[in-house]
Input
Amino acid sequence: MAERAEDPGAGPGRGKYDRGKTREARRAERYERLIRAAGEVFADKGFASTTVADIVARAGVSRQTFYEHFEDTQNALIKVYDHGIKKVFRDAERDLRGIRDPIERLKLGIAGYLANMGRNARLALVFNREIFGAGHEYARLRDASYGRWVALITEGVAEAYAEGVLTRPPDELTAYTLVGGMEQVALRYIDRGEEDRILEAAPVLVALVIRAFGGTPAPDLELPG
Output
């Protein structure tokens, strides 16, 4: 069960702030510090073993500050997930911007997904193992995240189909199934402690997507860059 203390007393960071910043800027800074600290603690200890005291100690803020931003540790985990997913897609959109070839975008998108899972391996396990009891809010965010990856694949496939590179138009069910498969492949590497090798799966997964929509992957398929 997520921790919720009765008395949100003072913590290590109480009263320490930069008076040269606006109140809104200080609040945003504290939130970023808490999000970063919570993610680190969840990755280190897992969700079930993490307490509010752990997070505020890592962040260097008070318990009162924690409760200004989160309801409890479960709510903190959900917000860490939401914050992380938004950053992943900001990075993906930045990296894919300007790449005209739809297959190249698929390659980069899939490689980026795997690389992110590998970089955040321990937290990925928390998000994909421990958090399933977090209720409807997490389910909504997770479904939205899946939807964005599905849209990324669907967009690339649709353009490749329009250009005659693929012979089958995209459909949501196939794309959703492929995204689920990618996640399980990534988790397999992480479960084995082989996240440093996770990108070796990218060419196989790209070829799978191409074949699923009626294309023939190049025999020497390589990732760009």
Remarks:
- The first helix runs from residue 23 to 45.
- Residues 63 and 190 are 33 Å apart (CA to CA).
- The chain has two domains: 23-70, 80-212.
